Amino acid sequence: MNIDSLCATLRKGADTLALHSEQQKNKALSCVIDSLLAHKTDILNANAKDVADSRAKGTSEALVERLALDEKKFSSIIESIRVIIQQTDPIGEEIAGWKTPQGMQIRQVRVPLGIVAIIYESRPNVTVDAFSLAYKSGNAILLRGSSSALASNKALVNAIQEGLRNAGTDGVLDSIALSECTDHSDVHDILNAVGKIDVVLPRGSARLINTVVQDARVPVIQTGAGICHLYVDQGADVTMAASIAQNAKMQRPGACNAIETILVHRSVAEDFIPLLAKAFDAKVNIRADSYCLDLLTKCNAQNIQAATEEDFGFEFLDFTVALKAVDSIEEAVTFINTHNTKHSEAIVTNDRSHARLFQAQVDAACVYVNASTRFTDGGEFGFGAELGISTQKLHARGPMGIKALTTTKFLIDGDGNIR
């Protein structure tokens, strides 16, 4: 991959796209939808090949699920683009404006970031989501997916590019590029493309994210890794808690917003733990501290074992969860802030003051009361899609929609003013 040539092409695309109207961008995205639908069979066949290859390599089913596309997921991809089309174009939005004592008019307006690179694993839907959000917000995008999803990503990008061509002058073909490199030399090039790439987003495993954060010389928005907790408070509705735990762990255990650790107040542990064991139905491996392990044993729970210190603060991304008893909400908050990745955390409680304390003191992008962490998602938040879940505090935090892909500039109008 010639990073200099590629970025020069993308820069031309970004410069052109930044001048396109909302109507032009929406027309191009509509043409992309038509092209994706026309090539659905090719895309699903390419994905089936990726899935078969991954299974042959012994990839866990939880991770295979992240890679696999089916009719339902494909329909969700299409719907996400439709939602993005309906959203207001953020480019040119005036954030603030005022007149100085010298008579100059100052306006702060939204502008695109420029060239965005995303390095991600599995999940072919990210290919379309990232492109659509970038395009609507006036950015060019460089996609670097994993080798396990290469056939899927090539089929998707080919369909996207055909849609942009079909849009005529309203489509900017140079706004998207896919790295097809199967080693990691291109990642090094991307992370060192100072002055050529405006921002890099890693989306995937903790290992991938840490590598990008440590090695990048270009700006990074840290996303992805999710060591998420569920705390069952004193006096909580334990039936509700068991239902939320089941959803947050079992619906998609390989997702970054799935819970990895459950904390339970000792006062409700005897009531909650049998319900939890029943909800998990021996499908989840529970790694419990000694107190919780004793209660699990007494209710004849299956697939249980003693937890180690390494189990707490670990992202399993599978049907495994750590379980620990605590003596207070303060202990729970301290434990979470020590072990989490600032992604998504939840409390089940009937105490309003405890709910507000938890939300105020837990350091995370999304903090839930009596709800599953699985809702941390751009689609669920009404963004249509997301570029990732930002776990940092600068520029963007939480699900990243269209506005997270913009920055601002100040426009100053004077009349011969000098200082």
Task: Show the helix and strand layout.
Layout: H1 3-17, H2 22-38, H3 40-56, H4 61-67, H5 71-86, E1 94-99, E2 105-112, E3 115-120, H6 125-136, E4 140-144, H7 150-166, E5 176-178, H8 185-191, E6 199-203, H9 206-215, E7 228-232, H10 238-250, E8 259-265, H11 266-280, E9 285-288, H12 290-298, E10 304-306, E11 320-326, H13 329-339, E12 344-348, H14 352-361, E13 366-369, E14 389-390, E15 398-399, E16 406-413
Parallel strand pairs: 3-4, 3-6, 4-5, 7-8, 7-12, 8-11, 9-10, 9-11, 12-13
Antiparallel strand pairs: 1-2, 2-16, 14-15
Write structural notes for this entry:
The longest helix has 17 residues, at 22-38. The protein has 14 helices and 16 strands. The chain has helices at residues 3-17, 22-38, 40-56, 61-67, 71-86, 125-136, 150-166, 185-191, 206-215, 238-250, 266-280, 290-298, 329-339, 352-361; strands at 94-99, 105-112, 115-120, 140-144, 176-178, 199-203, 228-232, 259-265, 285-288, 304-306, 320-326, 344-348, 366-369, 389-390, 398-399, 406-413. It is globular. The strands form 4 sheets. It has a 7-stranded parallel sheet, with helices on both faces. It is of the alpha/beta class.
